[in-house]
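Board notes (copied after class):
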Amino acid sequence: MVDIEGYHKAVAYIESFSNTSLRKNLVGVKKSPQFFLDRTKYFLKLLGNPEKGFSYIHVTGTAGKGSVTSMLRSVLTASGKKTGLFTSPYVTTTVEKMQVDDHYMSVPDFITTVEYLKPYIAEAEKGPFGGVSPFEISFAIALLYFKQEKCDWVVLEVGLGGRYDSTNAITSPVVTAITNIDYDHTEILGKTLREIAFDKAGIIKKGSLFFTSEQRPSLQNFFKKVCREVGAEFSAIKRQKHYSLYNKELVSAIARAIHISDADIDMGLTDVRMPCRFEIVDQEPTVILDGAHNRAKIRSTISNLRSLSFKKLFLIVAIADNKNDNRAILQYLVTLPYPTHIIITQVRIGERRTISPELLLSIAKEYKKNSKSSNKVSFEIVEDHRQVVERALSLAHKDDLILSTGSFFLSGELRKQWISEAWVLEHQRSFKK
């Protein structure tokens, strides 16, 4: 049995540090966002620079970066390279962010690493940049773990944006990649696609092989310009017929560029499963958990819906309260061409907080009122997310479909009803089969 109590204490220690100093709260603070990247570099220097010594693939983008990084890790592992993966956010539990090959970081390793970090965290608080954030601590844990496990390659998923993200403390990635550009975190990254692209392009480094699946010519030209300026090699994949193909084609192009065989690429891509990415967890009625939480992701979700047959759609919806621009995903959901019942709920766990159901309901009704869609849509609120699946199941028939979407946090919490946190921690993976 794993030490779940000790694990939760270690997680609580990390989460006791404030995220209020992150970029999303820069209003009124006279600091450049570079300050926060410099803080990460200072913290890593205290630790002896554990980021050094790996071959890196660094990935950002508005949608798909989690899938791309997971597929790249799988392909690298299939080719025989010991590979670390750092992602965010987690689905069910913190250690899902730190993975080596096919397994998450173990509970004993996690607890030991947190204990090791405590004096360095205290030292950082006395330094020129002040206390570090939970994300920076998690990044450091991952790097120390990858060093302990003697990883050859590390695949990094950017937490937010790119240019000033903590993961951008690395200096010489072999590959940098941007999946696509769309409107997300506009209050931080900028209100235009060009501004968002500028922030994400900050990961492109001298000597790196740069890849993108972004298709807009204006943004491709911008990335080409950045590559010329910094001395990186530009590549863009061709337009694909389906959303899901972009990620696979991007991964395949990157893998070939670093000399992975087609056989290993095929094996790695076949072996990838990710929780809460349009994940079917039950049948009759079909229950799908999906973490789509911006417009780009929700368009992919809707594309996946079109391949399924069902009579009525039951949507379980929550949206993070730190993303005002993403309330617009409701516009897509209330105009779907199916008879639809939308159950609005909320998540209130630590810093995992979603918009109040009452406000979401008013926004959804306004979108429906102003739409030209003739589909039948009904609404209700279930405030306790722990009761929302039971409510949906009580309403749905075996030929209907229940879909949780709009919030990665919500779908991750609901997933515990099928696979518990304790099981994930004990087995160091997300799937039972």
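Comment from the instructor: DSSP finds 16 helices and 16 strands in the chain. The domain at 279-415 is CATH 3.90.190.20 (Protein-Tyrosine Phosphatase; Chain A).
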